[in-house]
Write a structure and sequence with these properties.
Layout lengths: L7 E2 L13 H12 L42 H17 L15 E5 L4 H6 L1 H10 L4 E6 L4 H4 L7 E4 L15 H14 L5 E4 L5 H9 L4 E5 L10 E3 L6 H21 L6 E2 L2 E2 L14 E2 L3 H13 L8 E4 L12 H15 L2 E4 L6 H11 L4 E2 L3
Parallel strand pairs: 2-3, 2-5, 3-4, 5-6, 6-7, 11-12, 12-13
Antiparallel strand pairs: 1-10, 8-9
Helix pairs in contact: 1-10, 4-8, 6-7, 10-11
Length: 379
């Protein structure tokens, strides 16, 4: 990572040129990963890991696939109440379930739903870039939770960002079982007035988001074939056992191709930021990993912090953020320590570790396990 103001591609294939082979360290990191089903790839937001060549790769959670008919067999009161309410919402929305095609004579208006936290939002950036390239004149609105507003605001491929306190993602104690439905009705009413033409629910198992687009009467609604979700969509894909970045890009490819065919006979856009635009079907995530562009004041602030900790502008810097929103997503301190040691010894990199004040104990343990001089910026 550099602080020169240039975009930093966190997963550049050129990173492999940094590192000498270090099979012992790599094997140690992978061994710890086996216990967590990560194949040696650490979990947690914005984390770096090691591939077979020794370079950074993306790490992410993959959910198991379901078919639309795979309804969970449970009789829990809360689940039965949800199914009954969803059935009523479905019947109430039937008169508008198949709305007219987008109005001619104006660029389409597109809504993206990404309710997750930092990691999954960042990993959806390539899909947003693909959508922008296909529809460069369109208004693309990204809906995220308040917890992701700051990072979403750095995405230049969307026109604007709105926040929705998506139920189930705020990591707080559950309130009234009816609260998510009250929020649903209020939000759908607000979205309906904005007259969106296309909605894409990027979260694969998020039935609340699919129902939101249904009640908002958005004509084209894309998502995944998950229980209690697909009935509210006009088109869906069966989820595959693949990385979340690939999932999002695959869904956008499908939605873009279908929608473009409807509004302009399948004619692809010709430019994107002054360059020839590839159709989403031709895009490859190997060349479209997420790029995060910090603002100039953020770069200056980071530079001051690094200077205070003895990391000069000429250093190769890797920032490790080992924390996660749930303990089940955490990797071992020993594993992260091995990663830091490998980056310092074999890649010649300076390593800084970040976290909240409540994660200081974790970051201190990782520094100790690394046995190297790691800058601890937690808190």
């Amino acid at each position: 990572m550099t602080t020169s103001g240039k975009p930093w591609n966190a997963f550049s294939s050129q990173a492999n040129l940094w590192c000498r082979p270090a099979s012992q360290e790599e094997g140690h990191a992978r061994e710890h990963g086996k216990h967590f089903g990560t194949s040696g790839r650490p979990g947690g937001a914005a984390s770096a890991a090691l591939d077979a060549g020794g370079g950074p790769v993306a790490a992410g959670r993959v959910d198991p696939p379901y078919a639309p008919w795979d309804q969970p067999r449970t009789t829990a009161p809360r689940t039965l109440l949800r199914r009954a309410i969803l059935g009523l919402f479905y019947l109430a929305g039937l008169p508008w379930a198949h709305s007219p095609d987008p109005a001619a004579g104006r660029p389409p208006k597109i809504l993206l739903l990404r309710p997750d936290h930092l990691g999954d939002v960042l990993l959806s950036f390539p899909a947003m870039a693909a959508l922008h390239c296909e529809f460069p004149q369109s208004e693309i609105v990204l809906a995220v939770g308040p917890w992701s507003k700051e990072i979403a605001g750095h995405n230049e491929d969307v026109t604007s960002t709105i926040t929705i306190a998506f139920p189930g993602f705020d990591r707080t104690r559950r309130g009234s079982p009816l609260a998510p439905y009250r929020l649903l009705v209020q939000t759908a009413s607000a979205l309906r007035r904005q007259e969106f033409d296309l909605a894409i629910n990027l979260r694969n198992d998020f039935w609340w988001g699919s129902l939101l687009t249904y009640l908002a009467r958005i004509p084209w609604r894309y998502g995944y074939a998950y229980p209690e979700s697909s009935r509210f969509l006009t088109n869906w894909l069966a989820p595959k056992d693949q990385h979340v970045a690939d999932q999002s890009l695959m869904l956008v490819r499908r939605a873009s191709a279908d929608f473009a065919s409807s509004i302009r006979g399948g004619v692809a856009s010709s430019t994107c930021r002054g360059e020839p635009a590839a159709r989403p079907s031709e895009l490859d995530t190997n060349s479209t990993y997420p790029i995060f562009r910090p603002w100039s004041d953020e770069v200056a602030r980071a530079r001051r912090v690094l200077d205070l900790n003895g990391i000069s502008a000429g250093n190769r810097l890797v920032v490790v953020h080992p924390g996660a929103g749930a303990d089940v997503k955490l990797w071992t301190a020993e594993g992260w320590g091995a990663v830091a040691r490998y980056l310092i010894d074999s890649c010649g990199a300076a390593v800084a570790i970040t976290g909240s004040a409540g994660e200081k104990a974790l970051t201190q343990e990782i520094v100790a396990k690394s046995g190297r001089e790691v800058v601890n910026l937690a808190g």
